[in-house]
Specification:
single chain; alpha/beta; globular; 3-stranded parallel β-sheet
């Protein structure tokens, strides 16, 4: 299966990037959820947290919410995310 990623930003300059290395296991991992702050993300993230903990052994889940649903995440959230094993972002309308 081929996965294609699209960058929906308005940036005119396309910059090359490398994918982050994939962990062999999620046992003991720390995951961060970055929400856009809309109501629909709460239930989805809560269910996803339960699945990650129960079935994949994730140890810690950090929930963060952006201050503005239509803007990029704040620098403080991105700084913290650098210490997570992986992050999941979501929106819920």
């Amino acid at each position: 299966m081929t996965l294609r990623f699209f960058n929906p930003s308005h940036e005119a300059e396309i910059r090359a990037f490398e994918r982050a290395p994939r962990p062999a296991s999620l046992v003991g991992a720390t995951v961060g959820f970055i929400s856009n702050g809309k109501e629909g993300t709460k239930g989805f993230f809560a269910h996803l947290e339960a699945l990650l903990r129960e079935h994949l052994g994730v140890a810690e889940v950090c929930w963060r919410t952006k201050g503005n649903y239509s803007a990029p995440a704040e620098a403080e959230i991105l700084d913290e995310a650098a210490h997570w094993d992986f992050a999941i972002t979501g929106l819920g309308d």
